[in-house]
Design brief:
Length: 207
């Protein structure tokens, strides 16, 4: 159980809110909604990929900072209740991260981040459908879906199902059809153009 809120929260209020349960939450229409805990494979892949990307950005002097399990403020119209997603990995603009370092506010994506990465779990429709639409509307430049255990529907990862990475890149406000990577395919990313990572090397991070 978690403590109910007595009023709808803004994004900033939500970041400061704590029900004392230790659980992770997202903000849905002003209401904190608890998230399922990731399994150990999901946790390892997320942690190792985030560490790799952070090191890659530093080594190649890329203008990004990679951080694990950070809230992203979603787009809402004036008067609408606020929403957020807690992405597995958020790729921040380095200048925006430096701005937050000089602030006492919680570290989160208050403005649209350049990139977001989701590692797929049983609720795969959230990653392939709901979050895809949300990140597109928000203007996230690159959205990466890592389906290391082939959870997704066959219309996304084919039949027979196999571990797949899909990368969606924003063009004129819309995501282009997702690029598909499997096995020894080298990852083709706009944010990380010099990476030599293959899809299988990313999947190995869960093992």
């Amino acid at each position: 159980m978690y403590a109910p809120v007595t009023k709808l929260l803004t994004f900033e209020e939500f970041l400061a809110w704590d029900d004392g349960s230790g659980r992770e939450f997202e903000l849905i229409d002003g209401v904190p909604v608890p998230l399922s805990e990731p399994n150990a494979n999901h946790e390892d892949l997320t942690e190792r990929l985030c560490a790799y990307l952070e090191s890659h950005c530093q080594d190649n002097d890329l203008p990004y900072v990679s951080r694990q399990s950070k809230q992203i403020r979603l787009k809402t119209e004036p008067g609408e209740k606020e929403k957020s997603r807690k992405a597995d990995i958020v790729i921040f603009d380095k200048d925006e991260w430096q701005r937050m370092k000089s602030s006492s506010s919680s570290a989160a994506a208050y403005v649209p981040p350049p990139g977001a990465i989701e590692v797929v779990s049983n609720n795969w429709k959230d990653d392939y459908l709901t979050k895809l639409a949300e990140y597109e509307e928000l203007g996230v430049l690159e959205y990466i879906i890592v389906d290391y255990a082939a959870f997704g529907g066959i219309r996304f990862i084919g039949s027979p199902k196999q571990p797949t990475i899909m990368i969606y890149q924003l063009e004129d406000g819309e995501y282009l059809p997702g690029k598909v990577f499997r096995g020894q395919d080298r990852i083709d990313s706009r944010l990380f153009p010099n990476t030599s990572l293959t899809a299988e090397q990313i999947f190995e991070m869960s093992r």
